[in-house]
Automatic annotation (TrEMBL):
Species of provenance: Bucorvus abyssinicus (Northern ground-hornbill)
Keywords: Developmental protein, Differentiation
Domain Interferon-related developmental regulator C-terminal: 360-413
PANTHER family: INTERFERON-RELATED DEVELOPMENTAL REGULATOR, INTERFERON-RELATED DEVELOPMENTAL REGULATOR 1
Subunit comment: Interacts with PSIP1/LEDGF.
Protein name: Interferon-related developmental regulator 1
Any coiled-coil regions, as ranges: none
Keyword flag Magnesium: no
One Pfam family recorded for the sequence: IFRD
Example of a GO biological process term: cell differentiation
Length: 419
């Protein structure tokens, strides 16, 4: 390979400067500056596109480090901005670059390329162009997922990418079933591992099994009901075995998948009955109240929190509704299907999730949010809280927190006299 070039990565500054005039204010009304300098949108858009063209060219560089840096920069740009028109003109070039990097690259480069494939489909949404992208990249992703010689990290990234791209793109039911079968072949190996006493390599593969299980669960949410019934019959009595896994993330993934399966089962059949309910609820209750000293406190807190919700879902058919704020809008997550979908896209979009919820037509469609709400600068100014009011509010909140904590500490403190 040649000498790596000095790649200037796409930064948060690039995103904020370019988008300040029409989007960043949405995610935080307080961030809008009243007397800030006017931004030349056309010039900043041209500057951004010039940078992105450079990154696309660098995905063909001889140096693996340069290619990876270019892929990561494109990922940052795609997660923080809507670039539909720019990508539409270059979708085949981008698809070819991603395909080449997955086929020829090493582990880190393959992971970056698989992540970019997800974001490319998120940007394009569901349509003919996305279908063309998936026809090219789908077989390549499947091949890596099933390749035992590829690195676990690359297989894990490709499993996630395969599930998300299929969720976004495919209207072909046979392609959906084929993708689910590919993912099933991976995570069902975790069932066998529990029967083995010597599962040495199993721990090494756990991250792959988790990604395959979560991607499969996402696809299950868009299956026809008759297929959902078949999958529930096939997996509902096997999944509880994964609750005994040593890996916290696997226990949580299995628990949340169980809650989702119960939710779907009860939607298809109001009188749904699970034979081993007593044994399952015992397991879930044990995880929801786990006090094992050999586990980290943070892990125990996280596990107890998740499994309290899972137990409520299985026993009482209940879901603790969550509210997500983005700009002036609110979205309520009121079921496990919606939670699974939201968590999946939040994982790949990161801090760009709020912006995409506001502006990405595909995501707004998925969450039934309707057309994007466009706010002008004047409206954003009226929404801005004056700095002095924010200061007073923060001071009052800080004092209240301090008092509350002091009371708790007083209760915990040993009362007595010391000489």
């Amino acid at each position: 390979g040649g000498q790596p070039r000095n790649v200037q990565p796409f930064s948060d500054e690039d995103a904020s400067i370019e988008t300040m005039s029409h989007c960043s204010g949405f995610s935080d009304p307080a961030s809008f500056t009243e007397d800030g300098p006017e931004v030349d949108e056309e010039a900043t858009q041209e500057d951004l596109e010039y940078k992105l063209k450079g990154f696309i060219d660098l995905t063909l560089d001889k140096s693996a480090k340069t290619r990876q840096a270019a892929l990561e920069s494109l990922k940052s740009a795609f997660s923080s901005k809507i670039l539909y028109e720019f990508i539409m003109e270059r979708r085949m070039t981008l698809t070819d670059s991603i395909e080449r990097c997955i086929k020829k690259g090493k582990s880190d480069e393959q992971c970056a390329a698989a992540g970019l494939a997800c974001l490319l489909c998120v940007q394009m949404g569901s349509g003919i162009e996305s279908e063309e992208i998936f026809k090219t990249l789908g077989p390549v992703l499947k091949k890596i997922v099933c390749d035992g010689t590829a690195s676990i990290q690359a297989r894990q990234a490709c499993a996630t990418s395969l599930g998300i791209c299929c969720f976004i793109v495919t209207d072909d039911i046979t392609e959906l079933y084929s993708t689910m079968e590919c993912l099933e072949n991976i995570f069902t190996k975790a069932y066998q591992r529990d029967r083995d006493t010597n599962g040495v390599s199993s721990t090494h593969n756990t991250v792959l099994h988790i990604s395959a299980l979560l991607a499969w669960t996402l696809l299950l949410t868009i299956c026809p009901m008759n297929e959902v019934k078949k999958k529930i019959e096939m997996h509902l009595h096997k999944l509880p075995s994964l609750l005994s896994c040593d890996d916290l993330n696997m226990r949580i993934a299995a628990g949340e998948t169980l809650a989702l399966l119960f939710e779907l089962a009860r939607e298809t059949d109001a009188d749904f009955f699970y034979e081993d309910m007593e044994l399952l609820t015992e397991k879930l209750r044990a995880l929801a109240t786990d006090g094992n000293k050999h586990r980290a406190k943070v892990d125990k807190r996280k596990q107890r929190s998740v499994f309290r919700d899972v137990l409520r879902a299985v026993e009482e058919r209940d879901f603790p509704t969550e509210m997500v704020k983005f700009g002036p809008e609110r979205m309520y997550i009121d079921c496990w299907v919606k939670k699974q979908t939201y968590d999946t896209f939040k994982e790949i979009l990161g801090s760009g999730m709020q912006y995409h919820l506001q502006s990405n037509d595909f995501l707004r469609n998925v969450f039934e949010l309707g057309p994007p709400v466009m706010l002008d600068a004047a409206t954003l100014k009226t929404m801005k809280i004056p700095r002095f009011e924010r200061h007073l509010y923060n001071s009052a909140a800080f004092k209240a927190r301090t008092k509350a904590r002091s009371k708790c500490r007083d209760k915990r403190a040993d009362v007595g006299e010391f000489f």
